[in-house]
Amino acid sequence: MSNLSIKNVPEDLVIQLRARAKTNHRSLQGELLSLISAAVHAPDLQHHRGVPALGETTGTKSIEQVAAEHRASQIEPIADAPLAVDLVRRSRDGKS
């Protein structure tokens, strides 16, 4: 295996990379190798591999996107509907 060295990296970038590595439970070296690997295998370089480019979505949605779609699909709330917390309390306390 070969070694690479990057000189004159801005300190704020190093801090962000260390935080990213910690979030991903990797060493700084492991995080950098993961980023380089993802960049090299990006679809714009190798379309046949089917690997998403950095920042490209993979067909998944965030919880915020799902919630927004759900809210948009609801026409109007039921006026006299009980609150969910009240239903849970009734069920927990054995009341129908």
Please characterize this protein's 3D structure.
By secondary structure, the chain is mainly α. It has one domain (11-92). It is 48% helix and 0% strand. The protein contains 4 helices and no strands. It has helices spanning 11-23, 28-40, 63-73, 84-92. α1 crosses α2. The longest helix has 13 residues, at 11-23. It is elongated and about 70 Å long.
Main sheet properties = none
Overall pLDDT metric: 80
**Category by helix and strand content:** mainly alpha
Q: Approximately how much beta-strand content do the residues carry?
A: under 5%
How helical, in percent, are the residues? 40-55%
Radius of gyration: 24 Å
Number of distinct beta strands: 0
User: Element order, helices and strands?
Assistant: HHHH
Number of domains: 1
Q: Oligomeric status of the shown chains?
A: single chain
Low-confidence stretches: none
Count of helical segments?
4
What global shape is seen? elongated
Q: Which characteristics define this entry?
A:
single chain, 48% helix, 96 residues, mainly alpha
Topology diagram in text:
Elements: H1 11-23, H2 28-40, H3 63-73, H4 84-92
Helix pairs in contact: 1-2
Quick structural summary:
This protein has helices spanning 11-23, 28-40, 63-73, 84-92. By secondary structure, it is mostly helical.
